[in-house]
Amino acid sequence: MSPTSASLVQSDQDKTLVLNMGPQHPSTHGVLRLVLEIDGETIVRLRPEIGYLHTGIEKTCEAKFYQQVVPLTDRIDYLCPLTNNLTYCLAVEKLLGLEIPPKAQWMRVLMNELTRINSHLVWLGTHAMDLGAMTVFLYCFREREDILRFFEMVSGQRMMTSYFRIGGLALEPPLGFFEKVKKFADRFLGNVDEYEGLLTGNPIFLMRTKGVAKLSAEDAIALGACGPTLRGSGVDIDLRRDAPYTGYENFKFNVPLSTEGDVFARYVCRVQELRESIGIVQQALAGMPEGPIKADAPKVVLPDREKMKTQMEALIYHFKIITEGFAVPAGEVYQAVESPRGEMGYYIVSDGTAKPYRVHMRGPSYANLQTLAKMCEGLLIADVVAAVGSIDVVLGDIDR
Amino acid sequence: MPLTPPITDLEQLKSHPALARLLESNTAAVQAAKYDRDELTIWVDKGFIREACAILRDDSSCPFNYLADLTCVDWYPSEPRFEVVYHLLSIPRKERVRLKVRLDGSSPAIESVTSVWPSANHYEREVFDLFGVRFTGHPDLKRIMMPDDWEGHPLRKDYPVEGYR
Asked: What angle do helix axes A102-130 and A177-199 make, rounded to 10 degrees?
């Protein structure tokens, strides 16, 4: 973060002007600062400046026990806290060699897909609002509210859930939870039709998005794009299908693709993903297995409160895990998960102690941000707003 | 998935396309390899990294065409102190491989891979900012997370968690 914009982009001649956009700009979706070099209203060069939200989470992780890192992961990509929880837990479970019971796995899939819908709804609402369609925002947040209530039901929190724990889940879902989710899932496809009715055929929306901020498949791969941004450019990869984790191999779903590579293509991919996700939610509800929600590993997983009142071992394990943590065998893993924004990876190095030696989060927003400069070359300033919205960045995920 | 001991024998691991390809092009530059928890790690010489990345990217049978992640681990106080870690993904074959380079603690520097993958730009800037590892040939090597006038590199192990006050 340089104090002066002039040192960021050297304006070659007198022809161009350096313009600062953000970090307090309503359509940069957080504290993203873009330094634009413009010729008239045309972008000559664009440079993202980040770091305004850097909190040193990776450093903080090194000072915590493994189980204490879970709440920190919520705060990275705050629009999909459960995906962060999942990636971290899967990585530690891989380090430990822990087997997760089927019910916990299916619950993880269910909650993870609800998170994807939640995240896409925020994206859709704000993206449409950036482009002048106010109503969609209100509709999206209506359904998002329902999903946040589901999160509150299972974890007691609407946003910073920390619901997935190393070895399983924090709590059993409460009575009536599945019925409520089922009701929501049954009507949600109708809601998606509603959003699409407002946008997909809307001539103003089409003019703002079609052919804008194009990205070819080669550029997308070279610049490290991931998720819907990569699939919008026609690259067929989805980690849920290609490297299944937490039981995704048991679910049937399509991976929406588009070859256009423009803002509209990325919009189409995400909206189709909403439909696919609700399909996965319905499959998870229909096939939800019975059984425990925590792995059988007393040294890692906290015992039930009831057992602690009657069994001495349970009390001892509880005391030990809370005060000393649990040692994780030395080694390293990279666990990647398909988050709503693309490949979310956690690289964890263990030195055999109870605290992680190094935790690195590979954020999908951080990767997608690098494509912005290429996309915006030669566009108008107003199109930058459409381009930023289309890659769906979350600044918490970028700055960490 | 109970844990099994890691395999570190190069001969046994040769069947993996990435390792085979690197051994074929420059046997001397491949220091070691490890297969642990279903993940392959290859240690290569510091001077070979850019070439290794280019070879793996352009391999015809299994192109590792995507740089998924680039980061660093500080092993202070032991030497060599730094390990720069590259996570490569093959989009056509859905395979992953991890490359590692060991660097000494005194003025650590390594060749940039931005010429192989432009996406390495921000990752290398982040490692430079937080670990103080220099990347030669990087087009724009400056701090990305911390302010330009910040002193020290926060993710180094000798940097206190609460910072200097």
From this structure: 30
A283-304: pLDDT as tens digits: 999 989 998 989 888 888 988 8
ipTM of the complex: 0.92
Lowest mean pLDDT among A10-24, A253-267, B113-127, B138-152: A10-24
Chain A CB contacts of B159 below 8 Å:
59
Q: How far is CA A393 from CA A126, A200, A316, in A?
A: 12, 22, 44
Q: What's the pTM?
A: 0.91
Angle between helices A381-391 and A102-130 (to 10 degrees): 170
In this structure, the strands spanning B109-111 and B134-136 are: parallel
> What order do you get walking across the sheet with B39-44 strand by strand?
B30-36, B39-44, B95-103, B82-90, B66-74
What value does the mean pLDDT of chain A take?
89
Report chain B residues touching chain A, CB-CB < 8 A.
1-3, 6, 36-37, 39, 41, 65-69, 71, 73-74, 85, 87, 89, 91, 94, 96, 98, 117-119, 121-122, 130, 143-148, 154-155, 159, 161
> Is the predicted pLDDT of residue B34 greater than 70, yes or no?
yes
Residue in B with minimal Cα distance to A225: B119
pLDDT at res. B24: 82
